[in-house]
Design brief:
mainly alpha; Lysozyme; two-stranded antiparallel sheet
Amino acid sequence: MKQQAEKVTLYLALIGLSSLLTFASYGDRDDTGQKEDLKNNYSIYSLPIPEKLDFAGESVPIKEAQVLESFDRELLVNTYWQSQTVLFIKRSARHFPVIEKILKEEGIPEDFKYLPLIESGFMPVVSPAGAVGFWQIMKATGEQYGLEIGREVDERYHLEKATRVACAYLKEAYAEFGSWTLAAASYNVGISGLKKQLERQRESSYYALNLNTETARYIYRLLAVKEILSDPEGYGFHVRTKDRYLPLETFKVKIDSSLSHVSHLNKKYGINYRILKYHNPWLRMEYLPNPNNKVYEFVIPKQEDQSAESIEEAPSVQQP
């Protein structure tokens, strides 16, 4: 045993010495050797620009130098910010099916599925301005379109309901501008804000406007993410199906009473608070007062050993 330990110690010492010699040797490398190593062992590529681009069926004037360079910037940023884009690809596998279905039902072009991705990265974030959820909806906008927003419940975090609100906004913007590209840009700067710029600059196209930096990059980022996610492997992203965050098997439980604590639900369906919150981020507290007996739908992940009877049976829990 002692001899074996001595062998291991000697082996590690030799590895350490070898590493030190290599480091010392490399540390003394001259500029010529350094440049040669960089040339032979490290490669970053400029990216070919597609000859044709469109958003929601509307052509992009990609031949114009400033349009091409603006798109190129976002394509490079999102291609070489690899960790973020891999997460985009993984998360989209779970959330795109839900969003695509609603967009189709609402008559909104499918390209708008990329909008919440660039807004939030499919994370339930809050912006410095107070915009909330995947679609980054402001409180006034959410309430205008009928969302419940309060201390215990904030439906801006409800994916399906927030998507419906975004669709309503986009239809209103399209009716105003007659362009899906301008409708998308207005999602960032507001309908009145974009209308003001169009009138002030006497232009009718997004690509002709001189805008603040964030809005000026907005559509190009949307186009870049669409381009990459439409052909991930073409941009060097190899994400296996098994590595994507696929849709989870769930069912819905309708509750029209108050909950003194969601632990009642957790115990009944064999989950914990963290899991419940992941599937129901619109519930902001650990309890639910419901004096008007509004019907709330809780999404519950299906357990492998769950029987059909336990799924169909709605819990009977009351606020004391």
